[in-house]
Recover the amino acids of this structure.
Protein backbone atom coordinates (compact mmCIF):
# COMPACT_ATOMS: atom_id res chain seq x y z
CA UNK A 1 0.00 0.00 0.00
CA UNK A 2 1.19 3.50 -0.91
CA UNK A 3 0.55 6.80 0.86
CA UNK A 4 0.82 9.85 -1.42
CA UNK A 5 0.50 13.45 -0.26
CA UNK A 6 -0.41 16.22 -2.66
CA UNK A 7 -2.61 13.65 -4.41
CA UNK A 8 -5.28 15.98 -5.78
CA UNK A 9 -3.36 17.19 -8.81
CA UNK A 10 -0.20 17.26 -10.89
CA UNK A 11 2.48 14.67 -10.25
CA UNK A 12 0.70 13.34 -7.15
CA UNK A 13 -2.54 12.55 -8.93
CA UNK A 14 -0.69 10.98 -11.85
CA UNK A 15 1.24 8.77 -9.43
CA UNK A 16 -1.94 7.72 -7.59
CA UNK A 17 -3.53 6.78 -10.91
CA UNK A 18 -0.50 4.78 -12.01
CA UNK A 19 -0.20 2.89 -8.73
CA UNK A 20 -3.90 2.00 -8.81
CA UNK A 21 -3.59 0.77 -12.39
CA UNK A 22 -0.70 -1.46 -11.31
CA UNK A 23 -3.05 -3.22 -8.90
CA UNK A 24 -1.93 -1.73 -5.58
CA UNK A 25 -3.77 0.23 -2.90
CA UNK A 26 -3.32 3.94 -2.20
CA UNK A 27 -4.10 6.41 0.56
CA UNK A 28 -4.32 9.75 -1.22
CA UNK A 29 -3.77 12.74 1.08
CA UNK A 30 -5.32 16.00 -0.16
CA UNK A 31 -6.63 19.33 1.08
CA UNK A 32 -9.90 18.60 -0.75
CA UNK A 33 -11.03 15.33 -2.30
CA UNK A 34 -12.93 16.68 -5.32
CA UNK A 35 -10.50 15.46 -8.05
CA UNK A 36 -10.21 11.89 -6.71
CA UNK A 37 -13.74 10.37 -6.60
CA UNK A 38 -13.54 9.29 -10.29
CA UNK A 39 -10.42 7.25 -9.44
CA UNK A 40 -12.14 5.78 -6.37
CA UNK A 41 -15.08 4.74 -8.57
CA UNK A 42 -12.77 3.20 -11.17
CA UNK A 43 -10.80 1.25 -8.55
CA UNK A 44 -13.31 0.35 -5.82
CA UNK A 45 -11.82 -0.63 -2.51
CA UNK A 46 -8.26 0.32 -3.47
CA UNK A 47 -8.22 4.12 -2.97
CA UNK A 48 -8.91 5.89 0.29
CA UNK A 49 -8.91 9.69 0.18
CA UNK A 50 -7.88 11.58 3.31
CA UNK A 51 -8.45 15.33 3.51
CA UNK A 52 -6.26 16.77 6.24
CA UNK A 53 -3.91 19.68 6.94
CA UNK A 54 -0.53 17.94 6.90
CA UNK A 55 1.11 20.96 8.57
CA UNK A 56 -0.89 20.13 11.73
CA UNK A 57 0.94 17.16 13.26
CA UNK A 58 -1.64 16.68 16.01
CA UNK A 59 -4.47 16.31 13.51
CA UNK A 60 -2.49 14.36 10.94
CA UNK A 61 -1.40 11.39 13.06
CA UNK A 62 -4.86 10.11 14.13
CA UNK A 63 -6.24 10.58 10.61
CA UNK A 64 -3.42 8.55 9.07
CA UNK A 65 -3.63 5.95 11.85
CA UNK A 66 -7.29 5.41 11.00
CA UNK A 67 -6.62 5.14 7.26
CA UNK A 68 -3.76 2.70 7.73
CA UNK A 69 -5.80 0.57 10.13
CA UNK A 70 -8.49 0.23 7.49
CA UNK A 71 -6.05 -0.66 4.71
CA UNK A 72 -3.41 -2.59 6.62
CA UNK A 73 0.37 -2.49 6.18
CA UNK A 74 1.90 0.66 4.71
CA UNK A 75 4.70 -0.10 2.25
CA UNK A 76 5.63 3.25 0.63
CA UNK A 77 5.31 6.91 1.66
CA UNK A 78 5.53 9.60 -1.03
CA UNK A 79 5.97 13.14 0.30
CA UNK A 80 4.76 15.04 -2.74
CA UNK A 81 2.78 17.96 -1.28
CA UNK A 82 4.25 21.39 -1.84
CA UNK A 83 3.84 24.71 -3.59
CA UNK A 84 6.12 27.36 -5.07
CA UNK A 85 6.54 30.89 -3.75
CA UNK A 86 8.17 33.35 -6.12
CA UNK A 87 9.59 36.78 -5.50
CA UNK A 88 12.74 38.49 -4.20
CA UNK A 89 13.65 37.36 -0.70
CA UNK A 90 13.58 40.86 0.77
CA UNK A 91 9.98 41.33 -0.42
CA UNK A 92 8.72 38.15 1.26
CA UNK A 93 7.35 38.77 4.74
CA UNK A 94 7.85 36.27 7.55
CA UNK A 95 4.30 34.94 7.27
CA UNK A 96 4.78 33.89 3.65
CA UNK A 97 8.26 32.52 4.25
CA UNK A 98 7.18 30.43 7.24
CA UNK A 99 4.12 29.16 5.37
CA UNK A 100 6.39 27.99 2.56
CA UNK A 101 8.54 26.01 5.00
CA UNK A 102 5.49 24.65 6.84
CA UNK A 103 4.21 22.96 3.67
CA UNK A 104 7.42 22.16 1.79
CA UNK A 105 9.50 21.00 4.77
CA UNK A 106 7.70 20.59 8.10
CA UNK A 107 4.67 18.86 6.58
CA UNK A 108 6.96 16.24 5.08
CA UNK A 109 8.56 15.75 8.50
CA UNK A 110 5.10 15.36 10.05
CA UNK A 111 4.16 12.67 7.54
CA UNK A 112 7.40 10.77 8.10
CA UNK A 113 6.81 10.69 11.85
CA UNK A 114 3.16 9.65 11.48
CA UNK A 115 3.48 7.04 8.74
CA UNK A 116 6.12 4.31 9.01
CA UNK A 117 6.85 2.42 5.79
CA UNK A 118 9.54 0.28 4.17
CA UNK A 119 10.19 2.90 1.49
CA UNK A 120 10.20 6.69 1.49
CA UNK A 121 10.11 8.89 -1.58
CA UNK A 122 10.72 12.62 -1.20
CA UNK A 123 9.57 14.77 -4.13
CA UNK A 124 12.11 17.55 -4.45
CA UNK A 125 13.18 19.47 -7.55
CA UNK A 126 16.26 20.84 -9.23
CA UNK A 127 15.83 23.73 -6.76
CA UNK A 128 17.00 21.29 -4.10
CA UNK A 129 20.45 21.34 -5.74
CA UNK A 130 20.75 24.78 -7.36
CA UNK A 131 19.47 28.28 -6.74
CA UNK A 132 17.11 30.24 -8.98
CA UNK A 133 16.60 33.98 -9.22
CA UNK A 134 13.37 35.03 -7.53
CA UNK A 135 12.78 31.60 -5.97
CA UNK A 136 14.76 31.94 -2.73
CA UNK A 137 12.00 30.70 -0.41
CA UNK A 138 11.18 27.68 -2.55
CA UNK A 139 14.85 26.86 -3.08
CA UNK A 140 15.59 27.09 0.65
CA UNK A 141 12.71 24.78 1.51
CA UNK A 142 13.80 22.16 -1.01
CA UNK A 143 17.43 22.33 0.14
CA UNK A 144 16.18 21.73 3.70
CA UNK A 145 14.09 18.76 2.56
CA UNK A 146 17.04 17.22 0.75
CA UNK A 147 19.36 17.73 3.72
CA UNK A 148 16.84 15.99 5.96
CA UNK A 149 16.44 13.16 3.46
CA UNK A 150 20.17 12.50 3.11
CA UNK A 151 20.61 12.29 6.89
CA UNK A 152 17.42 10.29 7.24
CA UNK A 153 18.64 7.74 4.71
CA UNK A 154 21.67 7.03 6.90
CA UNK A 155 19.56 6.83 10.06
CA UNK A 156 17.08 4.43 8.43
CA UNK A 157 19.74 2.00 7.24
CA UNK A 158 19.55 -0.28 10.32
CA UNK A 159 15.78 -0.90 10.04
CA UNK A 160 16.15 -1.48 6.28
CA UNK A 161 14.12 1.49 5.03
CA UNK A 162 15.07 2.86 1.62
CA UNK A 163 14.89 6.62 1.01
CA UNK A 164 14.73 8.14 -2.49
CA UNK A 165 14.86 11.78 -3.57
CA UNK A 166 13.45 12.65 -6.99
CA UNK A 167 14.41 15.95 -8.61
CA UNK A 168 12.25 16.52 -11.68
CA UNK A 169 12.71 19.48 -13.96
CA UNK A 170 9.84 21.18 -15.82
CA UNK A 171 6.67 19.05 -15.86
CA UNK A 172 3.50 19.66 -17.85
CA UNK A 173 1.35 20.50 -14.80
CA UNK A 174 0.04 23.76 -13.32
CA UNK A 175 3.15 24.39 -11.21
CA UNK A 176 4.24 27.58 -12.97
CA UNK A 177 0.71 28.95 -12.98
CA UNK A 178 0.63 28.43 -9.22
CA UNK A 179 3.74 30.47 -8.51
CA UNK A 180 2.83 33.08 -11.11
CA UNK A 181 -0.52 33.65 -9.39
CA UNK A 182 1.31 34.43 -6.13
CA UNK A 183 3.77 36.86 -7.68
CA UNK A 184 3.20 40.57 -7.11
CA UNK A 185 2.51 42.39 -10.36
CA UNK A 186 5.23 44.92 -9.60
CA UNK A 187 8.27 45.25 -7.40
CA UNK A 188 7.64 46.80 -4.00
CA UNK A 189 11.35 47.64 -3.76
CA UNK A 190 12.92 49.36 -6.79
CA UNK A 191 16.17 47.39 -6.42
CA UNK A 192 14.32 44.22 -7.43
CA UNK A 193 12.56 45.43 -10.57
CA UNK A 194 14.90 43.30 -12.70
CA UNK A 195 13.98 40.19 -10.68
CA UNK A 196 10.29 40.76 -11.31
CA UNK A 197 10.95 41.32 -14.99
CA UNK A 198 12.91 38.07 -15.21
CA UNK A 199 10.15 36.11 -13.44
CA UNK A 200 7.48 37.61 -15.69
CA UNK A 201 9.52 36.76 -18.78
CA UNK A 202 10.10 33.20 -17.54
CA UNK A 203 6.37 32.69 -17.03
CA UNK A 204 5.54 34.13 -20.45
CA UNK A 205 8.05 31.83 -22.16
CA UNK A 206 6.66 28.76 -20.39
CA UNK A 207 3.03 29.66 -21.13
CA UNK A 208 3.45 30.48 -24.84
CA UNK A 209 3.75 27.50 -27.23
CA UNK A 210 6.25 26.11 -27.77
CA UNK A 211 6.87 26.31 -24.03
CA UNK A 212 10.45 26.74 -22.79
CA UNK A 213 11.84 24.84 -21.12
CA UNK A 214 9.85 22.10 -22.80
CA UNK A 215 7.93 20.35 -20.01
CA UNK A 216 7.86 16.61 -19.53
CA UNK A 217 4.66 14.65 -19.17
CA UNK A 218 4.12 13.47 -15.57
CA UNK A 219 3.22 9.95 -16.78
CA UNK A 220 6.74 8.69 -17.67
CA UNK A 221 8.12 10.24 -14.48
CA UNK A 222 5.53 8.35 -12.46
CA UNK A 223 6.39 5.14 -14.29
CA UNK A 224 10.01 5.69 -13.30
CA UNK A 225 9.02 6.21 -9.68
CA UNK A 226 7.08 2.95 -9.68
CA UNK A 227 10.10 1.31 -11.32
CA UNK A 228 12.29 2.59 -8.49
CA UNK A 229 9.82 0.86 -6.17
CA UNK A 230 9.08 -2.21 -8.34
CA UNK A 231 6.74 -3.62 -5.72
CA UNK A 232 5.81 -1.68 -2.63
CA UNK A 233 5.31 -4.99 -0.86
CA UNK A 234 8.85 -6.19 -1.59
CA UNK A 235 11.39 -5.48 1.20
CA UNK A 236 14.50 -3.58 0.15
CA UNK A 237 17.88 -2.77 1.60
CA UNK A 238 18.35 0.76 2.83
CA UNK A 239 19.92 3.27 0.46
CA UNK A 240 19.71 6.88 -0.59
CA UNK A 241 18.96 7.21 -4.28
CA UNK A 242 18.81 10.73 -5.71
CA UNK A 243 17.07 10.60 -9.09
CA UNK A 244 18.11 12.54 -12.17
CA UNK A 245 15.95 15.37 -13.42
CA UNK A 246 13.21 14.30 -15.85
CA UNK A 247 14.32 10.69 -15.67
CA UNK A 248 12.29 8.33 -17.87
CA UNK A 249 13.19 4.96 -16.42
CA UNK A 250 15.13 3.33 -13.62
CA UNK A 251 18.27 3.90 -15.67
CA UNK A 252 17.86 7.58 -14.80
CA UNK A 253 18.54 7.10 -11.11
CA UNK A 254 21.90 6.92 -9.42
CA UNK A 255 22.65 4.39 -6.70
Amino acid sequence: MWLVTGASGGLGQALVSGVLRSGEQVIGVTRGDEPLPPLAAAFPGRLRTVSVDITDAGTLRPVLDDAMTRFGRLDAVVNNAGYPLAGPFEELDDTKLRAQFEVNFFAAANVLRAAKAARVLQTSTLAGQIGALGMSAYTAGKHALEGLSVALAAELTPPGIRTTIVEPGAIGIDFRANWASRLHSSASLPDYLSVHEALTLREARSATPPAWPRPSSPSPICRALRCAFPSAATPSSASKTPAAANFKSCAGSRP
User: Anything to note?
Assistant: Residues 94-114 form the longest helix (21 residues). The CA atoms of residues 64 and 115 lie 7 Å apart. The radius of gyration is 18 Å.
